[in-house]
User: Which sequence fits this backbone?
């Protein structure tokens, strides 16, 4: 791209990193080159910076968003960027890079570059669309810029690709972006809400109806079933569907498992952050949720994010999925569904068992372990002290063998082996793990000889003994 468009004092997007919107989009040529010789692509498109806090002028390595418009050439990127199971055409794609716990911005020896992608991979392994991503080396005008992570953007075009329908049919709700120059507030009435939500597509009318219905209480069957589009007895009523309880539960289980300090509420629990809710206004489904920006994860295995938190309790602008979860906990049917989903994911090689989680994390470790050397050469000497806690990184640049590998080993051997049991204990403390677990069948169906012996046992995880 034109370097003045990137670094120009008045008009460069890097030089004015806090600026948002179409006015701060510049033309570029984007090319993907596979080292294996597999066919990539070249496309003319627009580029902006991506992110919130990472737009700080002290950050030398920004994330990017590429937008495919007819203004530049092709109206879409038509390429299977995320493999056979992903979408085949895109209106936009993000190229993110670690900011928290990074070497380039955070100067943090805990950098593994995998925290966000691990949570997104986990949601996909739980049989939800999730946000796909892979890892790449980025060069800008031939200069090596470091290790980056591709990322689908879960807005209307994403929803149409995975859920069907047209982009115009979708409401997409998220935490509102912030302009670091303009401040977080637009009017005096908003000054009490530093963190608030917005609709990037459609509107917030249906989300507000879900929030208001949840506030009224969901103890009985009537309101809860109405959110599912049903009569109080559970039969179909053809009503508007606002709640997808399976999506909400599985989304929150990923949040809890990662110990996410930054989503869907901030670590102090007073405001929303880093969440997306998606719903087709003309379809029969409730809001679905996707993991987004999960960098503050895989830290202390004893972290408890089960709440309750106050965000969304009094003010609609601070509403979020965890508030809806908290309100639904009053409902017996919802609690039983939690128990079912916990049994599915935390036992019998489910996505949140220690073995499955370690395998999922190790696959990504193997994918980038050589690339981390190049990241160290480019950014390892950017800071000698952590941006967050002043921790000294040691003599010489942050690097793979002395810093990355010890943190990877800690996650693999100290966090993931115990985290599932700890989350189960946290859910047990909320009364969400029933005394009687589902039965385990020795054999599931099929033709049996008359002399066959069948066995049914209780799948007791032993939580009661530890608690």
Assistant:
């Amino acid at each position: 791209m034109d370097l003045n468009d990137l670094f120009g004092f008045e008009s460069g997007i890097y030089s004015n990193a806090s600026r948002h919107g179409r006015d701060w989009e510049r033309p570029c040529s984007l090319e993907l080159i596979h080292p294996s010789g597999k066919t990539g692509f070249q496309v003319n498109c627009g580029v902006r910076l991506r992110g919130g806090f990472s737009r700080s002028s002290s950050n030398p390595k920004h994330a990017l968003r590429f937008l495919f418009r007819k203004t530049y050439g092709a109206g879409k990127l038509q390429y299977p960027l995320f493999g056979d199971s992903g979408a085949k055409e895109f209106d936009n794609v993000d190229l993110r890079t670690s900011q928290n716990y990074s070497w380039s911005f955070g100067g943090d020896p805990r950098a593994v570059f995998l925290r966000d992608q691990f949570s997104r991979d986990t949601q996909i392994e739980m049989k939800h669309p999730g946000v796909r991503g892979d890892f790449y080396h980025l060069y800008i005008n031939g200069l090596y810029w470091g290790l980056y992570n591709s990322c689908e953007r879960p807005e209307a075009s994403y929803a149409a690709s995975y859920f069907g329908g047209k982009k115009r049919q979708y409401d997409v709700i998220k935490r509102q972006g912030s302009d670091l120059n303009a401040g977080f507030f637009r009017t005096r009435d908003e000054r009490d809400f530093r963190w608030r939500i917005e609709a990037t597509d459609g509107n917030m009318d249906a989300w507000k109806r879900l929030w208001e219905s949840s506030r009224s209480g969901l103890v009985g069957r009537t309101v809860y079933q109405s959110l599912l589009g049903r009569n109080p007895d559970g039969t179909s009523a053809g009503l508007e569907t606002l709640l997808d309880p399976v999506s909400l539960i599985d989304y929150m289980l990923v949040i809890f498992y990662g110990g996410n300090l930054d989503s869907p509420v901030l670590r102090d629990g007073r405001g929303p952050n880093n969440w997306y809710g998606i719903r087709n206004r003309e379809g029969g489904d409730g809001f679905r949720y996707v993991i987004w920006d999960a960098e503050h994860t895989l830290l202390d295995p004893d972290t408890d994010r089960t709440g309750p938190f106050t965000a969304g309790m009094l003010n609609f602008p601070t509403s979020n999925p965890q508030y809806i979860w908290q309100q639904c906990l009053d409902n017996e049917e919802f609690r039983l569904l939690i128990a079912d989903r916990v049994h599915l994911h935390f036992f019998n090689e489910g996505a949140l068992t220690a073995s499955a989680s370690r395998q999922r994390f190790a696959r990504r470790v193997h994918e980038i372990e050589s690339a981390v050397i190049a990241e160290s050469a480019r950014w390892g000497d950017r800071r000698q002290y952590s941006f967050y806690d002043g921790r000294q990184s040691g003599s010489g640049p942050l690097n793979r063998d002395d810093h990355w590998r010890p943190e990877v080993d800690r996650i693999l051997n100290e966090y993931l082996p115990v985290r599932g049991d700890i989350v189960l204990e946290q859910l047990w403390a909320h009364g969400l793990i029933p005394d009687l677990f589902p039965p385990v069948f020795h054999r599931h169906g099929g033709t049996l000889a008359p002399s066959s012996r069948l066995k049914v046992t209780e799948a007791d995880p032993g939580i009661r003994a530890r608690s």
Observations:
- Residues 109 and 239 are 52 Å apart (CA to CA).
- The longest helix spans residues 400-429.
- The radius of gyration is 23 Å.
